[in-house]
Amino acid sequence: MKLVYAFDAYCGWSYGFAPTLAEVVRRHPGLEVEVVSGGLFTGSRRVPIREFGYVQAANARITELTGVPFGDGYARLIADGSFVMDSEAAARGVAALRRIAPDRAVELVAAVQRAFYMDGMSLSDPATYRTVAEAAGLDADAVVDALSAPESKAAAEADFARSAALGVDAYPTLLALDGGRATRLAVGRADADEIDRRLEALSTAS
Questions:
Q1: How far apart, in whole angstroms, are the C-alpha atoms of residue 105 and residue 76?
Q2: In angstroms, rounded to a whole number, what is the distance separating the alpha carbons of residues 73 and 104?
Q3: Distance between CA atoms of 192 and 195, rounded to whole angstroms?
Q4: Closest of 53, 49, 41, 51 to residue 9, by C-alpha
Q5: pTM for this structure?
Q6: From CA 82, how far away is CA 96, in angstroms rounded?
Q7: Per 3-state DSSP, what percentage of the chain is helix, strand, and coil (rounded to 5)?
Q8: Using CA atoms, how far apart are residues 5 and 16, in angstroms rounded to an integer?
Q9: Are 108 and 98 within 8 A, CB to CB?
Q10: What DSSP state is assigned to residue 184?
Q11: Alpha-carbon distance 19 to 23, whole Å?
């Protein structure tokens, strides 16, 4: 059995779920976690953030329920409403980091989301991934090179297809994949204890 974590880097609820996922990984160090980017803001949804009038209220709710903060840098970035969230660009960045450090994907996607939601760094800017890579002790030049490589674009598209094939229709979604069977452990929000109980039930049933 392994876990599949389908998230979107520009999804506030995915940002709120990051501490839970980190705790699940800490409790189950031998359990593989596949990290898959979703395509929440692509196509016609790739518009200025002002088009999503619910953002501030949703962020307040996310903080209330998960405890994650939203930083001053983020507030400044979105203040005039012109910032465009581009999930394809973010997925390419995640793919580049994952390519350089595949065993650290959970940690790195959390760092990417902090860069946006705390520091207000655009996930379309290669400098963001350089900063994340340097902070993580990775080869930043290799990450930036991977970001512009065709393989990262292909990986982003493959992630979107993988998420759709698994039936993911909301982010974040945490799945347990056992053979050909996918079981939802969490959608949107859950704590580590809830996920542990669901994992235990799966182990008992199998």
A1: 28
A2: 25
A3: 5
A4: 41
A5: 0.95
A6: 26
A7: 60, 15, 30
A8: 14
A9: yes
A10: E
A11: 6
For residue 45 the two structure tokens come to 């949804």
For tokens 């997925």, name the residue: 91
Q: The domain containing residue 183 runs over which residues?
A: 2-205
- Angle at CA of residue 190, ends 2 and 112, nearest 5°: 70
Give me the phi and psi of 40, to 5 degrees please: -65, -40
User: Which DSSP symbol is given to 48?
Assistant: B
Integer Cα distance of 155 and 34 in angstroms? 13
Angle formed at CA 161 by CA 156 and CA 165, multiple of 5 degrees = 150
Kindly give the confidence (pLDDT) of every residue in the chain, 206 residues in length, as a single tens digit, with 9 standing for 90 and above: 999 999 999 999 999 999 999 999 999 999 999 999 999 999 999 999 999 888 889 999 999 999 999 999 999 999 999 999 999 999 999 999 999 999 999 999 999 999 999 999 999 999 999 999 999 999 999 999 999 999 999 999 999 999 999 999 999 999 999 888 899 999 999 999 999 999 999 888 76
Q: What CATH number is given to the structural domain containing 30?
A: 3.40.30.10
Number of folded domains that form the chain:
1
